[in-house]
TrEMBL record:
Domain of life of the source: Bacteria
Family: Belongs to the metallophosphoesterase superfamily. YfcE family.
Domain Calcineurin-like phosphoesterase, residue spans: 1-144
Keyword Metal-binding (UniProt): yes
UniProt entry tagged with the keyword Metal-binding: yes
Co-factor(s): a divalent metal cation
The name this protein goes by in its record: Phosphoesterase
Keywords: Metal-binding
UniProt feature coiled coil, ranges: none
PANTHER family named in the record: VACUOLAR SORTING PROTEIN VPS29 (PTHR11124)
EC number: 3.1.4.-
A GO MF term: metal ion binding
Length: 163
């Protein structure tokens, strides 16, 4: 099962559309995960039409229209892997321990908010991934997104892609 992880797209504020390379990754993915800050509902509509499967949550910059259609925390089981998607996880310091307490039983936590790519493993073994932003690099050298593969209930082949 191929995953595409994106967050903090901020459309159409930071960009008018997703980069072509991200749309190509949408077409290749079995599941697209978006960790919030869509900003406008049009991207949600586009991804719902184009993605084979979409899992997403709302972020702090998302209004009532997006909050009405998306949960604050999305939870899904993908090929035996328990996945949660949330926009904010707080400060980097102590993140893994804090998320272990907040998301027991989760194997993979996808989050956003900072626009800073992140890949770590908590003391309890939960993988934490932040794909950064494909449209707003802020203080990062590149705009980014992540891909991964799930097989037999295990996460593998996690890759960060610079745009």
């Amino acid at each position: 099962m191929r995953l595409l992880l994106i967050s903090d797209t901020h459309l159409p504020v930071r960009a008018k559309r997703l980069p072509d390379v991200v749309w190509a990754a949408v077409d290749e993915a079995d599941v697209v995960i978006h960790a919030g800050d869509w900003v406008h509902v049009a991207l949600l509509d586009e991804l719902e039409e184009r993605a084979k499967r979409l899992v997403g949550c709302w972020g702090n910059n998302d209004g009532d229209d997006l909050r009405a259609r998306l949960p604050e925390v999305a939870r899904v089981s993908l090929d035996g892997l328990e996945v949660a998607v949330v926009h904010e996880t707080g400060a980097a310091k102590g993140r893994e321990e804090r998320c272990d307490r907040a998301y027991p039983g989760v194997d993979l936590l996808v989050f956003g908010h900072s626009h800073i790519p992140w890949d770590s493993t908590s003391p309890a073994g939960m993988r934490l991934l932040n794909p950064g932003s494909p449209t707003d690099r802020r203080r990062q050298p590149y705009c980014t997104f992540q891909t991964a593969v799930i097989g037999a209930g295990r996460l593998k082949e996690v890759a960060l892609h610079n745009i």
